[in-house]
UniProtKB/TrEMBL annotation:
Top EC class for this record: lyase
Cofactors named for this entry: a divalent metal cation
Function statement: Catalyzes the aldol cleavage of 4-hydroxy-4-methyl-2-oxoglutarate (HMG) into 2 molecules of pyruvate. Also contains a secondary oxaloacetate (OAA) decarboxylase activity due to the common pyruvate enolate transition state formed following C-C bond cleavage in the retro-aldol and decarboxylation reactions.
Official protein name in the record: Putative 4-hydroxy-4-methyl-2-oxoglutarate aldolase
Quaternary structure (record): Homotrimer.
NCBIfam families the UniProt entry points to: PRK09262.1
Catalytically driven reaction(s): oxaloacetate + H(+) = pyruvate + CO2; 4-hydroxy-4-methyl-2-oxoglutarate = 2 pyruvate
């Protein structure tokens, strides 16, 4: 497998990345019309951590982390490394030594559509990571691949410079051209949810706030007392 290492790709504006960092993955995805999620199998190795940054992408051969070594050189302050493989893999392609090198360069975290290891060490050093698998299985450095090219995870395309937001709920990608308006839409959604939250604290029901009683009626859902519901079961 041959490949290419692309240098200096365009990136989302830092201000837009920081604006998106204020919001959770669910909010950002909803703000984009329920798109951008990298799927439920990409899970965090820590809890209570949210990061946002610009993607540096890696396409590797399964069980081979050569291109991650190549990608480290292309990473800088505010980036998030996004790794996938040409076919499914759960091998532990990333660990504490990689994290040390990336942390030194200001990288905010890792998203890997494969396996990683040294999870305790990653948590202790505060390096955030999301992965498809955790595995102690080692890898080789023998096959070419690519860095900073478009890659796909669970049907979502991630390009270098796109915004990645990750938290306990998973990972979402925001195309760099949509970063600002997605941040604005996320803010509007937060304001709307704050109003709903306040109403629910006061005791209002979602059925009434969202006008769902009429929806139930349209769907043919009826209310019956317990006695009415069980009348046909009585001897």
């Amino acid at each position: 497998m041959s490949g290419v290492i692309v240098t200096g790709p365009p990136k989302a504006a830092a201000a837009d990345v920081e604006a998106l960092a204020r919001y959770g993955v669910a909010t950002v995805s909803e703000a984009m019309g329920r798109t951008g999620l990298l799927g439920p199998e990409i899970r965090p190795v820590q809890q209570g951590v949210r990061i946002a940054g610009t993607a540096v992408t890696v396409l590797s051969w399964p069980g081979d982390n050569l291109m991650i070594h190549a990608a480290v050189e292309q990473c800088g302050e505010g980036d998030i490394l996004v790794v996938t493989t040409t076919s499914p893999s759960t091998d532990g392609m990333f660990g504490e030594l990689f994290a040390t090198a990336l942390q030194r360069r200001g990288v905010r975290g890792l998203i890997i559509n494969a396996g990683l290891r040294d999870t305790q060490e990653l948590r202790e050093m505060g390096f955030a990571a999301w992965s498809r698998a955790v595995s102690a299985q080692g890898t080789v450095k023998a096959t070419g691949g690519s860095v900073n090219v478009p890659v796909a995870i669970d049907g979502q395309v991630i390009r270098p410079g796109d915004v990645i937001v990750a938290d306990d709920d998973g990972v979402v990608v925001v195309p760099r051209e949509r970063a600002r308006r997605t941040a604005e839409a996320s803010e509007a959604r937060e304001v709307k949810e704050a109003g709903a939250r306040a109403a629910f604290v006061e005791g209002q029901l979602g059925l009434d706030r969202y006008g769902l009683r009429e929806k139930l009626k349209q769907l043919g859902v009826t209310y019956q007392s317990y006695d009415e519901y069980t009348a046909g079961e009585r001897p």
